[in-house]
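Provenance and format

Records in this collection were gathered into a single text stream. Each protein contributes a sequence line and a token line. The two records reproduced below are adjacent in the stream.
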Amino acid sequence: MIPLLVDCTGRRIVIFGGGAVALRKAMYFSGNADVLLVSRSFLPKITAMPIKRRVLDVSTVADDLIEEILEGAFLVISTFSEPYQNNRIGNLCRERAILFNNADGEAGDVILPSVTGGKNYTIAISTKGSSPAVSRFIREHLEKTYPALDEMIALQSELRELLKQHEPSQSRRTAILREVLSDNELWDILKKDPSLARIQAKKRYLHE
């Protein structure tokens, strides 16, 4: 597998299941993709979400009805507690070359990573399904250690453009930007006052 960032805007995502795992998967795509959840019952939090739902006991229906639901899907996710039901849906997806993520059972061809991000960045972390807890631990560590990461990226972008105007040496521009990243005091200021941090950075590194 290789990591990719994919625009799912308007794409049909079908999630089988109505429990806690299905809720997390739905939240991952809600507001971006066209999400449909299929299950015989749903958690209250799922019913409150602005997504489509279809009440259906998959274990009691033939494959042809499931195939109808799969029609037009970009990605299918199965979150049932019974691996054989998930595997059944996965097999139908493979026959139709539909991307599939399996919460429990035979591995699908898509892994949903633990994700953190902001306005200026997205970081996805995966242990290839071996330990979701480790992925979550790393995500939480990044969020705790670098709460001003979004602001730092914005600052780096601004400084980079200014340096292009005043510093002809690319190697020197790169070195200055790395110095900014290593400036612990500047990181602390960014957390409290991004505007002040920009002023300080320009004074220290651009001599403005």
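Adjacent record:
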Amino acid sequence: MPAPEPTTGPLTPEELQLATRNRGMPLEALRYDTTPTGLHYLLVHFDIPAVDAAAWRLRVGGSVERELSLSLDEIRARPRETLAVTLECAGNGRARLVPRPVSQPWLNEAVGTAEWTGTPLASVLDEAGLKPGTVELVFTGADHGVEKELEHDYARSLSLAEATRPQVLLAYEMNGRPLEPQHGFPLRLLVPGWYGMAHVKWLTRIDAVREPFEGYQQRIAYYYRQDADDPGEPVTRIRPRALMVPPGFPDFLTRQRILDSGRVEVSGRAWSGLAPVSQVEFGVEGVWTPAKLEEPLGKHAWCRWTAAWDATPGEHLLSCRASDAAGNRQPTDSAWNYQGMGNNAVQTVRVLVR
């Protein structure tokens, strides 16, 4: 069916159906340096494939000197690296836009940081031998379905420069254990710094190509567009964002926070795929003060921030925002776009101090 137009109405049954299949990270889980696997955000476009690990092979072909067919054991026997990497869905914040693009209705919670273990992609490509004229690598997963009337395997491409970065991994472990089925077992691509759509799960093929890849997930989905006809700009790296651990305790329905007056330490995490985080500011009713930053878990992982707040009785609106070393800072207001991508407007948390 054609893409539904953005709406100001309530969530549609289709959005609710997506929301029950996919899950966000509860924001209180920001207290963990690395997100427990069961709390890490999850987005599955189609079905979780049933993969027989014994029969599975990763095939490398296309514009290469030597086609490869690698078993999971052969990939695990290669040099291994472990990286702490923060992943965020490109649609994080979509449900906060007005009018709301109709898709997975994320608020702020589509994020998580894990320790990923795998082998560098570059060494596999070296073994295959890329032929002159290769411009991109296409990564195809085992998940298959229909989106906007187009039937396809989920597939994305990367330029040679991006794909051969030493941090790009063929990952087979998450937090020290084999990948869970929903996180891409037996193998997924890990592209540190990029939004989640680039980290192809259930990886089955890598094809070197001499022309830019024109698949649906590459050329139609994941664009910053102002309307259906706007050619737009592709979504790539993660924009800066800070989130706070909601202080106090919540009201069940509204999630408004309740806490006692006095000195409160507010904390959270901040990250950017564009450059290292350089500053986090904590806001009360729109008055900003610098927060204290701790060292990040790694070059491509979030860092912890803390701020002291003297909470006085009454209702208050708390917020936080991150800036990175390239001069990018979270906006106060959402920048609307047709697909609801990359909305990194500042988080606000309403609290009642008693």
